[in-house]
Design brief:
This protein is of the alpha/beta class. It contains seven helices and seven strands; from the N terminus they run αβαββαβαβαβαβα. Helix 5 links the parallel strand 5 and strand 6. Helix 4 packs parallel to helix 5. The chain is flat.
């Protein structure tokens, strides 16, 4: 029998980085905002370090908040500062770069391509002022009128884990609309 291993497997760089840094955290009152990864063994290890919560309101004032590789919205950062939380920001550098670029090009219209309920996308859209989020090529057909209002540049960003093939098709269609 021949066994063929996938070219890409395991955790991506951002998740591996977040996991490695998380496993080195020490102290009391450490809270993870969401699961660091979707892996039961890893979650058990993380639970030995701190508590996993789904809402920042479950983190006591003054505690340590760990931001996972997906990043979070601007509102979460503001609420964390208001609660005087120590933030351990493990946002993937690639995701952080997209957030910075979205914020930088806020004077233009922004198209964000990704899965509507994905944590990374929820963070990314919070950095945009005028944007539309699309998940499928068919949604581009409904943008004609909206895009006509922007004769200026339109910037297109994508979720880092979105299918490259699907993104390429959607980007081509946007350029040729």
């Amino acid at each position: 029998m021949e066994v063929i291993l996938a070219k890409n497997n395991g955790f991506c760089f951002g998740v591996k980085n977040a996991l490695d840094k998380s496993l080195n955290l020490v102290g009391d009152n450490i809270y993870f905002l969401g699961e660091l990864v979707h892996n039961k063994e890893t979650i058990k290890a993380i639970e030995g370090i701190g508590k996993i919560v789904s809402d920042i309101e479950d983190v006591p004032d003054g505690a340590t908040l760990v931001v996972r590789a997906h990043g979070v919205s601007t509102d979460i950062y503001k609420r964390a500062r208001d609660k005087k939380l120590k933030i351990v920001d493990l946002t993937c550098p690639k995701v952080r770069k997209i957030h910075e670029m979205v914020e930088q090009y806020n004077d233009h219209f922004i198209v964000i391509i990704g899965k509507k309920d994905h944590p990374e996308i929820l963070g990314t859209i919070s950095f945009a002022k005028r944007y539309v989020l699309i998940s499928d090529e068919d949604e581009i057909d409904n943008l004609d009128r909206e895009l006509d209002n922007y004769k200026d540049k339109i910037y297109v960003f994508s979720q880092t884990t979105f299918s490259k093939e699907k993104y390429d098709k959607m980007a081509w269609k946007l350029k040729n609309t």
